[in-house]
Amino acid sequence: MPGCCEGSAVESARMIRHSGLLLALLLVLVLLWAPLPFGGVLPWAAALLAALAFGALALAAVAVEPLQTLRPAALPAAALAGMALLGLLQAAPLPAGLVAALSPQHAALERQAATLSGSTAPAVSAPARLTLAASSTRRAALGWAAAAAAFLAGAAAGRRRALRRCLAGAVLAGALFQVLFGARDWFARARTLWGVDLPSAVRLRGTFVNPNHLALYLEMALPAAFAWIWWAARHARDEPRVERRVALAVPPAMLWLTLFAGLSFTGSRAGLLAAAFAVSVQGVLVAGERRRWWLAPLGAAVALAGIATVTAIGWREGLGRLLATSAADVSWGARLREYGEALALWRRFPVTGTGLGTFRDAFPLVQTADLQGTWWHPHSDPLEVLVTAGLVGAALLAAGLWGLVARLAVVLRDGGRSEDRATGLAALGILVSLGVHEGLDFGLSMPGNAITLAVLLGAAGAARVRERSAELGRARQDLAAVEALDLEHVEPAPERRRHPQRRRRGARKRPDGELPHGRPVEP
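User: That's the sequence. What structure does it adopt?
Assistant: Structure tokens below.
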């Protein structure tokens, strides 16, 4: 029986290890595929990404043993799942009285719709919904659920360093492909992408229709490349051979410069500013990690090196759009009016919002004549969450983000290895960059970008950390014991003053093998 139990344990461990490898392989395929079909924005592409995310979650349930190891990912994943549940609640038929209490504007629109349709049913008893378009809200809820699944799957894979390397390598390889593929079409002034007619490529767009969305994708790879630079520099200084130092430090530096140049040629002003700010913050984090504050300008120096590289290649194409921006810029003025009207829309539906995925349906309620066209999303992802999910959704995301940032700070400070700490540095840089960019754009509305972000952050949050409490407790106990031992053999001050010469003579007569306090030396 004992041999049988040992054999089953070995077989179980082997199955878990193989499941982890399959999980990493599936996530690598997801990360490589996610941006290719126009950023996953097409319905079939978004559905395929969601299916792959749920499949990865099923593999993660087998690969992780025990499930308590996913505890660091619990709060952010719960926030994402909570958003999905909120969307399902918004799309579900609810008692009209409950809807009127939560969102009087929804109830009024339901009564108006019933009147226009000629319904004779009492408005009070008819069910109502907390969304203006139930089908759109259900699709958006599926996207949030897929993001939660991808986050947990990334956390399951991120427990092992080798699997994290695979995920980071997939994102860096995908970003490099986007730059090279986009550069080919840009130089050729191609008018098609995967056989679909598009305007001529005057800005680098990769496999995305909107160049700003490519910029957001590259912003997830740039912080990872900088973290690689930091890790490589730490190891290079211990190498005695110069060629080995060069082999460690040069590849990540060249990759960062290439990706930054690609980002600049997308013409995304918010993306360029966000990337430069994020790497500057990463430099400060690197300095604070070991209290070496002279390293704080490192990130800003890297950003300046990137700008110099872009200027050398073609400053007009890379920086011209940013330098030409002024306070009277037409698009900036339109965005300010858009933000004001979006806030006016939120004030109509403050608690639960208009319904996930319904900005296009709700914005005409407040849209003025000078803002022509159809607005699918506002140029601000946080603002869209506030408008479509209300204060409930904003609170959910704020709680999840707080838990994630707290965990990543612990990883950066207490990571078991320098590679673990580099993982925290990369993830924090991604959050800083996307926090700046997405305040002015809607790149995370692309399913490919959202799934990529969820996998990366989940893997980073699951990195192993040292247990500081036990170490500090033992250190404090040892220090207290040493201090008590020293104080035990300290003579009173008056006695020392009264016999100074006697103490010196006693010290000279102390036999070998005895410490100053009279204790024998242990062999």
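The two ends are 48 Å apart (CA to CA).
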